[in-house]
Design goal:
Number of strands: 0
Number of helices: 13
Order of helices and strands: HHHHHHHHHHHHH
């Protein structure tokens, strides 16, 4: 539920649902349930870009899973740790942890959520300045999603592709815009308002840089205005800061 609430545009309710899941799991005193709760609460924090919470749940997940021999959850906890490492400026460590977690997950025979973890790996690679490697990893994520049918992260994959294309030595704004438009269309089709806001912010920022201020504001303002909570989360803060920059000058 915490993940579904975030995607539907309720980040505060998402965080509360994750907290309840962990609290209930602690009360049950059932180690496997608690390990699973740590992981899903950590992933909800990743969606919300809450680095400290993702790190804490990743650490708890790895510690508990390692103690009880839960290889699957230990592997996924390392992915959470790696994403948090990269976001905190420790990209090399983060990349290694995510790759280690992916390999350990695959060693258990698990194939689920691989496109998501590849997307997090690409994000970590981008933090390290490895843009072309990040783009190749996003290609792998899309290819894996096409085979497995796990397309729930395709909007974010395309958005990240647009961001990374813009960071190449010779950026291609038109290609970046195509990626952002694709991300936006997928997010709207799938009903993930969390990814829709992120894609709209990326596209609006590109338009602002190209002098298309009115279009950028008309895209982002209604979407931001439709949110009723989560205004202290990074995505909504980013959108609000951009809208402030896009505001038309006041006339005396």
């Amino acid at each position: 539920m915490s993940s579904a609430l975030w995607h539907r545009g309720y980040p505060d309710q998402s965080a509360r649902a994750a907290d309840r899941a962990v609290a209930y799991s602690r009360e049950l005193r059932h180690a496997h349930t608690l390990a699973q709760a740590f992981y899903f609460a950590g992933m909800a924090a990743v969606f919300a870009r809450d680095v400290a919470t993702a790190c804490a749940h990743g650490n708890d997940c790895v510690a508990l899973a390692s103690e009880h021999g839960f290889a699957h959850w230990a592997a996924l906890g390392r992915v959470l740790q790696g994403w948090a490492d990269a976001q905190r400026g420790e990209a090399t460590t983060g990349i290694a942890r995510i790759r280690d977690g992916l390999a350990a997950k695959e060693a258990t025979g698990s194939c689920v959520f691989t496109p998501l973890y590849l997307t997090l790996l690409a994000e970590a690679l981008a933090c390290a300045g490895k843009i072309e490697e990040g783009l190749a990893t996003l290609d792998d994520a899309l290819a894996t999603a096409a085979v497995s049918g796990e397309r729930g992260w395709n909007a974010e994959i395309h958005r990240l592709r647009g961001e990374l294309v813009g960071r190449l030595p010779y950026p291609d704004p038109a290609k970046a815009e195509d990626s952002f438009r694709t991300a936006l269309a997928i997010a709207r089709e799938q009903g993930t308002r969390g990814y829709e806001l992120r894609a709209a912010t990326s596209l609006a920022r590109l338009w602002r840089e190209r002098g298309r201020w009115d279009e950028a504001r008309e895209l982002l303002a209604p979407l931001y205005g439709s949110f009723t909570e989560g205004f202290d989360t990074p995505d909504l803060k980013d959108a609000k800061a951009l809208l402030d920059e896009l505001a038309p000058p006041t006339r005396g």
